[in-house]
Automatic annotation (TrEMBL):
Source domain of life: Bacteria
Cleavable signal peptide: none
Domain (Integrase catalytic) ranges: 1-137
GO biological process: DNA integration
Source species: Limosilactobacillus fermentum NB-22
Cross-referenced PROSITE patterns: INTEGRASE (PS50994)
Xref: Pfam families: rve_2 (PF13333)
GO MF term list: nucleic acid binding
InterPro entries with a match to the protein in the record: Integrase_cat-core, RNaseH-like_sf, RNaseH_sf, Transposase_IS3/IS150/IS904
Name of the featured protein: Transposase
Length: 141
């Protein structure tokens, strides 16, 4: 199961069964549509998955003047935010036994909703990722 995470708001954007270029491009396009043109460099960091090396992904970043950063091969600390998320999810969800793939996916989706909307994070001033994003957007407006 593949997952996309926004480090700005520390919330999960999208999940899916298979890593594809289209799967990777959807949240990227959504994020690019929300990000204003800034005076400083915008960076997107990923692992070395094939979809992030694909010309469509790279061309989309170039068209929006976004810098691409990739983690080094076999260096999980470069992608620590996602590694941490998966550890938390495995501890809180994956230790259970699920009879079907559908039951597992349903449990994961429920947990991701909890993670995004109700699970508070110390680094977000004790707010959930979605609440923190809402407050940040209000301050910027």
């Amino acid at each position: 199961h593949r997952t996309k995470k926004s480090l700005f708001k520390l919330s999960i954007l999208l999940t899916g069964d298979h890593p594809t270029v289209e799967f990777a491009l959807k949240p990227l396009q959504e994020a690019l549509n929300r990000i204003p043109v800034l005076d400083y460099r915008t960076t997107v960091h990923t692992d070395q998955g094939f979809q992030y090396q694909h010309r469509h992904w790279q061309n989309t970043l170039k068209e929006h003047h976004v810098f691409q950063s990739m983690s080094r091969k076999a260096t999980c600390l470069d992608n620590a935010a996602m590694e941490s998320f998966f550890h938390i999810m495995k501890v809180e969800v994956m230790d259970e036994h699920f009879e079907t793939k559908t039951a597992l996916i349903e449990a994961m989706n429920e947990w991701i909703d909890f993670y995004n909307h109700r699970r508070i994070k110390t680094k977000l001033d004790g707010k959930s990722p979605v609440k923190y994003r809402e407050l940040t957007v209000q301050k910027a407006a």
